[in-house]
TrEMBL record:
Protein name: alpha-D-xyloside xylohydrolase
Residue ranges of every copy of the Glycoside hydrolase family 31 N-terminal domain listed in the record: 55-218
Signal peptide boundaries: none
PANTHER family given in the database record: GLYCOSIDASE FAMILY 31, MYOGENESIS-REGULATING GLYCOSIDASE
GO molecular function terms listed in the Swiss-Prot or TrEMBL record: alpha-D-xyloside xylohydrolase; carbohydrate binding
Catalytic activity: Hydrolysis of terminal, non-reducing alpha-D-xylose residues with release of alpha-D-xylose
Length: 679
């Protein structure tokens, strides 16, 4: 949210009250409370009247994390959903002298200066990593009369900001306005399916705003030397997170919000989808599966998209009798071929679905203020939305999925979860609708994941989810949404995946060859390379089948080669999965996360590390040209060359390369001293 008009004025219709200085403070054992008048510092008793005051509470939920809660008027938050945080009782020290208060947790210290202005200085091992200074903390009234709490941290020379969820815009977020508000906007705009109010700075700190509703970030876009973040209402809680490096900070953040779990070994193979609106039946499914086998393309998972259910009845959770007369037999046949089965679902119930009357009668849907079911036509005619704040509604929804599991379904694609209304909305538990908009996806995906853990066991539970919020990393895997079938969209998908990994999520996938439109054979082959060198790999589309033989014999060869390459990499990937689970560092990671001290890696978003030891640079051009950078591995491998796992060619570190690759090769380089293929 922008409220300034240049450097000196306020936008028309807005009012801003800045916290001036610290008038008083209370020190408890592990809590520091500061009282900060608005406007000007208080120098005599008369100034204590009619002025207003910001109360600031400083605490620590875990070592190396310092949390600040800024409060105007205290409100009852019993009906606000809250992120599930893993707090501990860390050792905290609070010291005061004539110049400042110091609050220390682990190796992170917040030094708060006394005087005529407010100065929050964050130091890790004594070195400044972040700072909030003059006119940073404010209470803003917008041009609609709504209150917001706002804070600013300095944006230093050369400082770059990453993360904030799966964002399709520039990988480095400097200069961007970012709204943390889940929307179904495809991959070509500033909207995002997975908004996470957490960022990483290359100055070695993380910033997490603990608010499940809308959070607005202005990253050098309101004041160019500051990162500004604000929330509607009268209080805001945020945490500065320290660590030795970006990986350690990510580890501390996921200690707080949840570590990605282990996922099944079979999930690392190739997933094949029927695609979205295509016609298919049991015969089509078996033709696809058998066609892959006949062409020696190993397949791990077959995915049934929407139309396994009757049209305009999504969701009824019942197989179409005209196309799947014997679902149990069909699924048993797919299992006999060595496949796992995934089925598409969402949390919406069309009015035509036989489940609508049942859910409405029992009060299982989100309601309007007049007590009626909240309905609209965006997606399915007259659809309702399951209310997961109602425990009985959650059990009811899970019971429909349990039947599918009993029939032979192994996992679910939990689509949608972003178009959650806020106007004229009442939840079963009285939750604030605006706070529930982003948080809904957490309850939705948790309900499905918990069922799979119960039915299949924790080692076998996995989703294919589109929407997410903080904590959603505990319910993997996520994919990148509705991308187009062209190179710019392929590149924006990778940017988004790298941002997602900088936001606490360990696994990520995307629609190989693009969701919209029909890809060219060229794009199909290039995206196949990229897709099968991602943590998870799925062919999927909208109106077009994505089986490789529809795109030429060479596409078949490329699909076979790279599917088998990924299977050869599986032992390496399983080892890297354990690293992700234990540390929170993603399997697919941005170069800056792996090489934070190499300036050439700070902006790189067209290549990535797949685990610790494999550098991948997808080809984004029809002529096969790729431009990529090879960093110095450092340590004992400093100065040593990286080697292609496909050609054996060596590449000297610290250099940029521009080369042309055929469809059977791309830059896939092993770190010096490593052997990802284990051969």
């Amino acid at each position: 949210m922008k409220f300034l008009n240049g450097g000196w004025l306020i936008r028309d219709g807005f009012d801003v009250k800045y916290a001036a200085n610290i008038y008083d403070a209370d020190i408890e054992e592990k809590k520091l409370t500061l009282y900060c008048p608005f406007g000007v510092p208080i120098h005599h008793p008369g100034q204590t009247l009619d002025g207003g005051m910001l109360t600031i509470e400083v605490t620590s939920p875990r070592p190396d994390i310092i949390t600040t809660r800024m409060i105007n008027f205290r409100k009852n938050r019993d009906h606000c959903p809250a992120f599930q945080l893993n707090t501990t009782d860390p050792d905290v020290s609070i010291e005061e002298n004539d110049e400042a208060w110091s609050f220390t947790s682990g190796r992170l210290t917040l030094r708060i200066a006394k005087g005529e202005s407010i100065d929050f200085q964050y130091l890790y091992d004594g070195k400044e990593i972040a700072r909030s200074g003059w006119r940073a903390k404010a209470l803003v009234t917008d041009d609609q009369g709504r209150l917001h709490v706002s804070e600013q941290l300095n944006l230093g020379v050369g400082e770059k900001i990453y993360g904030l969820g799966e964002r399709f815009t520039n990988f480095v977020k400097n200069g961007q306005s970012v709204e943390i508000w889940n929307e179904d906007g495809g991959t070509g705009t500033e909207q995002a399916y997975k908004n996470i109010p957490f960022y990483l700075s290359n100055k070695k700190y993380g910033l997490f705003v603990d608010n499940p509703g809308k959070v607005s970030f202005e990253i050098g876009s309101e004041k160019v030397s500051r990162v500004q973040f604000s929330v509607p209402g009268e209080e805001m809680t945020y945490s500065v997170i320290g660590g030795e490096d970006l990986k350690a900070i990510l580890g501390n953040y996921t200690d707080l919000t949840g570590k990605p779990p282990l996922v099944p070994e079979w999930s690392y193979g190739l997933w094949l989808s029927t695609s979205f609106t295509t016609d298919y039946d049991e015969k089509t499914v078996n033709e696809f599966v058998d066609g892959m086998a006949e062409r020696d393309i190993p397949l791990s998972v077959f995915h049934f998209d929407c139309r396994w259910m009757k049209d305009v009845e999504w969701c009824n959770f019942t197989w179409r009798e005209d196309t799947f007369p014997d679902p149990e037999g069909m699924l048993a046949g797919l299992h006999a071929k060595g496949l796992k089965v995934c089925a598409w679902i969402n949390s919406y119930i069309a009015q035509k679905s036989p489940l609508f009357e049942e859910g409405a009668a029992k009060g299982y849907f989100i309601k309007r203020k007049d007590g009626s079911v909240w309905q609209w036509d965006k997606w399915q005619a007259g659809m309702a939305i399951v209310d997961f704040t109602n425990p009985e509604a959650t059990k009811w929804y899970q019971s429909k999925l349990r039947h599918l599991i009993d029939q032979g379904v192994d996992c679910f694609k939990t689509d949608f979860g972003e178009r959650i209304p806020v106007d004229d909305v009442v939840y079963y538990d009285g939750s604030d609708p605006e706070m529930m908009h982003n948080y809904y996806t957490y309850l939705y995906n948790k309900a499905v994941y918990d069922l799979l853990v119960e039915a299949k066991g924790k080692d076998e539970a996995i989703l294919f989810a589109r929407s997410a919020t903080v904590g959603g990393q505990c319910f993997p895997v996520h994919w990148g949404g509705d991308c187009s079938s062209n190179y710019p969209s392929m590149a924006e998908s990778l940017r988004a995946g790298l941002s997602f990994g900088m936001s606490g999520f360990g696994y990520w996938s995307h629609d190989i060859a693009g969701f919209e439109d029909r890809p060219t054979p060229d794009l199909y082959k290039r995206w196949t390379q990229f897709g099968l060198l991602s943590s998870h790999s799925r062919y999927h589309g909208s109106t077009e089948y994505k089986v490789p033989w529809l795109y030429g014999e060479e596409a078949v060869d490329v699909a076979r080669e790279f599917t088998k390459l990924k299977l050869r990499l599986k032992p390496y990937l399983l080892d890297q999965m354990k690293v992700t689970h234990e540390t929170g560092v993603p399997m697919m990671r941005a170069m800056v996360l792996e090489f934070p001290d190499d300036p050439a890696c700070e902006d790189l978003d067209t290549q990535y590390m797949l685990g610790d030891d494999l550098l991948v640079a997808p080809v984004f051009s029809e002529d096969g040209t790729a431009r990529f950078y090879v960093p110095d591995a450092g340590g004992e491998q400093a100065g040593q060359p990286w080697v292609s796992i496909l050609t054996g060619k060596a590449y000297e570190p610290g250099r940029w390369y521009t080369e042309t690759f055929d469809y059977h090769t791309l830059p896939a380089l092993a770190r010096p001293g490593s052997n990802p293929l284990g051969e």
